[in-house]
Amino acid sequence: MATVAQLLRSAADLPGESARREGEILLCACVHKPRSWLYAWPEAIIPDEAAAQFARLLAARRAGQPIAYILGEREFWSLTLKVTSATLIPRPETEALVAWALELPLPRHATVLEMGTGSGAIALALASERCHWQITATDSSVDALAVARANARTCALDAGVTFLQSDWYAGLGRERFDLVCSNPPYICPDDAHLQNGDLRFEPRSALAAAEGGMADLRCIVSAARDHLNDNGWLLVEHGFEQGEAVRTLFALAGFSAITTRRDLAGLERTTGGCNNAQ
Q1: How far apart are the first and last CA of the chain?
Q2: pLDDT > 80? residue 277
Q3: pLDDT attached to residue 106
Q4: In terms of domains, do 261 and 170 share one?
């Protein structure tokens, strides 16, 4: 029999700089208690079955598997979302795109397109805040769409989001929207970071893009105005070194009010522009 304190000490060798925190998260999942319980009861005896499960989870984490994939979920915005190896792990910096979208002067019953939805994080976050919006979320991956649909049902947001398999705009016909948004693949395929940390386990097709990471961004921006209503907006997330190149794409496509916002680390992360009526 082991105590909370003993089990957490056994997690001290986890990779990365957050071993203690990750050990706590994994132990909480095994005992079905909040982290505050661990602090209040460090000498509590953990049942053998839970301790054995904790050992298995530690082994997976030591092998490099992301916490989100080990637990099968990740918090995003105010939602708990299922994630699998078919989807990217939603990250805090992407919440800035959601916040920006919510600030825009869109109609009460705005039509919104989110492309490359993955787990459905962006679309479902928007739906949770704007019940009157009509949101379409697309992905080229059938497996990712299955995860997104499951998340919509679990979050009771399935009535507000329509999921569609589409390779960017290919499956949308002539449909137009008040907002198009996306967190597309934008990493250069030969970037060394793809061989490190959580990125090793995430779907490469959702991370890397040709042309030095710019191919999908170029596709999205260049055709966006064909799918935007007058005074509609396009918002995209991109790499922290791609801000200038993305602003150039927006300008060449004829957008106005082109702006890049920085993330909490001060890095250029999200660019947007308006399709002003001519």
Answers
A1: 73
A2: no
A3: 97
A4: yes
Q: What does the alpha-carbon distance between residue 202 and residue 193 come to, in Å, rounded to a whole number?
A: 12
pLDDT at residue 278, as a whole number: 53
Q: Which residues form the domain of 142? A: 86-275
CATH number of the structural domain spanning residue 168: 3.40.50.150
Decide if 68 is inside a domain: no
The mean pLDDT value for 124-140 works out to 97
Query: Residue 201 and residue 174: Cα distance in Å, rounded?
Result: 36
Total domains in the fold of the chain: 2
Whole-angstrom Cα distance, residue 79 to residue 121?
8
β-pairing verdict for 228-237 and 177-182: parallel
β pairing state of 228-237 and 268-275: antiparallel
Angle at 62 between CA 58 and CA 66, to 5 degrees: 85
| pTM, to two decimals | 0.90
Is residue 113 classed as helix, strand or coil in its secondary structure? strand
Max CA separation in the chain (angstroms): 73
DSSP 210: H
Compute how many other C-beta atoms are within 10 angstroms of the C-beta atom of residue 13. Answer: 10
Is residue 7 within 8 A of residue 38, CB to CB? The reply is: no
Over residues 188-244, the pLDDT tens digits come to: 998 888 888 778 888 888 899 999 999 999 999 999 999 999 999 999 999 999 999
Residue 79 lies in a domain: no
